[in-house]
Design goal:
Nucleotidyltransferase, domain 5; four-stranded mixed β-sheet; 50% helix
Length: 421
């Protein structure tokens, strides 16, 4: 096997002819002279269709390839221009790199894989490039991968949420597909205008095919869904409903603590109420012996606070019941609303009003079993991406990495098959 054939196999470049290999002493790199084979010559760099020759362009140019040992490797070739019937005069396509890119497919693929596994800074250091170049490669790989894919096609059950990505109330809006467990849309900002952009991209016909939309109780989400997706069932996330009850319980705990401070002759009572937070928050089945004893003491000392805890646990039991008996859970929810309405605990009286405002969405959660658990998992992974990169200057950089790793199959290393589960 000739040296040129070995280099061709090493470069993993198809439809490419290796003409020569040399060392550039000035740049301290390996330069491999290549050209497209006869089947790939004189093609438009944008559409890939054959086109008549126009001129020689700006002469020879180089593309960065994967390093060999400690030496950088560049592919060098002529870059003539053709006159495409559709795109006009443009540089010819090359089989080893994307149009307009300064790196080969293999270099882009390895950089994208590393960016999905570690920080941009580490990727840039290993690949011997800048972190801005890594960001450009990620965007290029995502755009190329998604060019032939319509992520908004076939959506029926989606989840909508917001995630904070920076101090100062900086949010991003994310939409996931419950059927594929993939991110389908993400944008900088949050609020009615941003969510309207998603439905503009989705279009009226595909919006009409939506059957269920899970979300939290944000007013701007409910308003947009009522206006743009009235035919879909809005599903309230159970986690947020339980969180409302926990917040109402904590308000009552602080009120009980303040009453005990003012009225109790023994300061130990107030201190014990102050230290009861975790016993009240925790699920009843997960209580330790010490926490169970604390609740028994609260039942004897402060019946009002204990009643608030029972209300919280009863609401949790409604959603637990829905996993096996959805119809019974609907009746249990109505009974809970009646109990909370008569409980004379301000926090839970307000909570039952809030639940009645979202009554249909909560009933849908009980009957369908849907939640925002998938999208909360996506938010956790997004925060990990942000933490791994020690923060990002713009939301666009975060969105590009999220779409690279969470919107489709994760990138693979060049020359390797995707891992099978």
């Amino acid at each position: 096997m000739s040296v040129f054939s070995i280099w061709k196999r090493t470069l993993t470049a198809e439809n490419t002819v290796v003409e020569g290999v040399r060392i550039d002493e000035n740049e301290q790199c390996v330069v491999v002279s290549v050209r497209p084979d006869a089947r790939r010559r004189q093609r438009c760099g944008r559409c890939g269709r054959p086109a008549p020759w126009f001129d020689a362009g700006r002469g020879r140019r180089r593309w960065r390839d994967l390093d060999h040992g400690v030496m950088r490797v560049f592919l060098e070739a002529d870059a003539p221009r053709v006159d495409c019937r559709r795109h006009g005069v443009t540089v010819t396509a090359v089989p080893w790199a994307r149009h307009g890119a300064g790196h080969t497919y293999a270099f882009d693929q390895q950089a994208a894989w590393m960016a999905s596994e570690c920080s941009k800074s580490a990727t840039a250091q290993l690949m011997r490039t800048s972190w801005r170049t890594v960001g450009a490669i990620v965007e290029r790989v995502v755009a190329d991968r998604d060019r032939a894919v319509d992520r908004l096609a076939g959506l029926t059950r989606i989840g909508i949420d917001e995630i904070s990505h920076r101090k100062g109330q900086k949010y991003m809006t994310v939409v996931v597909d419950h059927e594929t467990a993939k991110v389908v849309w993400m944008a900088d900002g949050h609020g009615k205008d941003v969510l309207d952009r998603f439905f503009d991209d989705l279009g009226k016909q595909r919006t009409a095919r939506l059957t269920h939309i899970s979300a939290d109780g944000a007013a701007w989400i409910a308003q947009v869904l009522a206006e743009r997706a009235a035919g879909a069932v809005r599903v309230m996330d159970p986690f947020h409903v339980i969180a409302w009850a926990t917040d109402a319980l904590d308000v009552e705990r602080r009120a009980s603590w303040n009453r005990a401070r003012r009225q109790a002759a023994d300061p130990d009572t107030a201190r014990a109420l102050k230290d009861s937070r975790f016993a009240l928050w925790k699920n009843e089945a997960d209580l330790t012996d010490r926490q169970a004893a604390k609740l028994t003491w609260i039942a004897a000392t402060d019946p009002r606070l204990h009643r608030a805890w029972r209300l919280k646990e009863a609401l949790r039991a409604v959603f637990t019941l829905a996993k096996t008996r959805p119809t019974a859970a609907l009746s249990a929810l109505d009974r809970w609303i009646g109990w909370a309405r008569r409980c004379r605990i301000d926090g839970f009286v307000d909570l039952q009003r809030r639940i009645r405002r979202h009554h249909q969405a909560i009933r849908a959660a009980l009957t369908t079993g849907m939640s925002n658990g998938l999208i909360e998992s996506t938010n956790t992974k997004t925060r990990l991406i942000i933490r791994r990169g020690f923060g990002f200057h713009t939301a666009d950089a975060i969105i590009a990495l999220v779409m690279l790793t969470l919107a489709s199959d994760r990138p693979t290393l060049p020359g390797r098959q995707p891992a099978t589960e």
